[in-house]
Amino acid sequence: MDAFTTLTAVAAPMPMANIDTDKVIPARFLKTIKRSGLGVHLFDTLRFDNDGNERPEFILNQEPYRKSQIIIAHENFGCGSSREHAPWALLDFGIRCVIAPSFGDIFYNNSFKNGILPIRLPRAICDQLIDDAKLGGNARVTIDLARQVVVRPNGEEIHFDIDPFRKHSLLNGLDDIGQTLQHGTRIDSYETTRRQALPWMPSTAGA
């Protein structure tokens, strides 16, 4: 998992509430267990019409937002089903941060596990950031995870809260497997001791 430290990028304004995971990645694209290749289907029903043509009114089909790495939305982003494909699709498109007043609980947890930073901020502040984002490519937003601040284009810094463990994991690029591998020496030591003490028991190494 790529570490998340500081990000300065174009932010896509999406002033909509209840953007559910089926809007993020429709169910018909969930046949794969691969994390790559899903970005082309991100927000498919919002980005494309029934003939596969781009909807010009949708923000990610407009410049400079085609290369957005931040989304700013309204309440309950990522609600709905528990599909982990939603953060996979966001990440594959290039989104590393979503800012909203609230999130669906499972989506919120899955985002951290996949290297995406979900930031909760009050609705009024999200609306300010949405207005900033509407100014285009010259109004980039900076996310400084170490300092826990969102920096507006005018230089104003907005503090956000984050669980210390999740912050540590993102800063160091540690997913669940990476966190386990941090204890590799102790795991190997346990396996060695277990084999010596219980030689008739099968090894759990590689299980």
Can you describe what's shown?
The protein is built from eight helices and eight strands, in the order ββααβαβαβαβββααα. By secondary structure, it is an alpha/beta fold. The protein has two domains: 169 residues, Aconitase, domain 4; 33 residues, no CATH class. The mean pLDDT is 90.
Contiguous runs where pLDDT drops below 50 for at least 5 residues: none
Quote the distance from N terminus to C terminus: 22 Å
How many individual β-strands?
8
Tell me about the biggest sheet?
4 strands, antiparallel
Shape, per Cα inertia axes: globular
Instruction: Please name the CATH architecture of the largest domain.
Output: Alpha-Beta Barrel
Which range does the strand content fall in?
A: 5-15%
Helix segment tally: 8
Q: Could you spell the SSE succession in H and E letters?
A: EEHHEHEHEHEEEHHH
Going by helix content, strand content and strand pairing, the class is alpha/beta
